[in-house]
Amino acid sequence: MLLVSLYYLWKHRATVSGKAEVDLASTTSWGTGCVISAFTKIKITGPFVMGRRVQIATGCFIAAGRAGLTIGDDVLISPNCTIITGKYRFDRLKIPLQEQGTEGKGVRIGDRVWLGSNSVVLDGADIGDDVIISAGSVVTGGVPQNSIVLGNPAKVIFTRRADFTNSLDEKPLARTSAPQPVNSGE
Prior knowledge:
Blueprint: H1 2-12, E1 15-16, E2 21-22, E3 28-30, E4 35-36, E5 41-44, E6 48-50, E7 55-56, E8 61-64, E9 69-71, E10 76-77, E11 82-84, E12 87-88, H2 97-100, E13 102-103, E14 107-109, E15 114-115, E16 120-121, E17 126-127, E18 132-133, E19 138-139, E20 142-143, E21 147-150, E22 155-159
Parallel strand pairs: 1-4, 2-5, 3-6, 4-7, 5-8, 6-9, 7-10, 8-11, 9-14, 10-15, 11-16, 14-17, 15-18, 16-19, 17-20, 18-21
Antiparallel strand pairs: 12-13, 21-22
């Protein structure tokens, strides 16, 4: 694993834990500042494009198959997430699945996406920019930008708006009056 860590550090300026299992592949294109944590497994058999400053936490499994995986900039992938870019064919009865071959559409994850712990992203998912995938969700298709999704299958529960965010550069709102006590029913 030391050789793999050094390879990705040299080729992409990425930090790969010595306890992570990442395939060596010429089909990768990673931005600088990526971090892959311990006990994460990344199997690469197809194109795997990863933007700048992507962080993949402990215990994740990522399978970048022939259809490819594209991850945008500043993506956070929380512990124990799974991303799979292919699936078994299953259209012929009486033939074992592993003998029917695989197919895939690939997966695209936009910029500034946060995948909550234990989330699953399956083949064909297309996640827009600025999306939050709630913990334990299963994403199987398209997710519009600025969405927060939850569930299995993942459904939009909220749409984030630019006027709703609180920038670190903003000053806190000044209090116009003293807080009022809560009526305890006495």
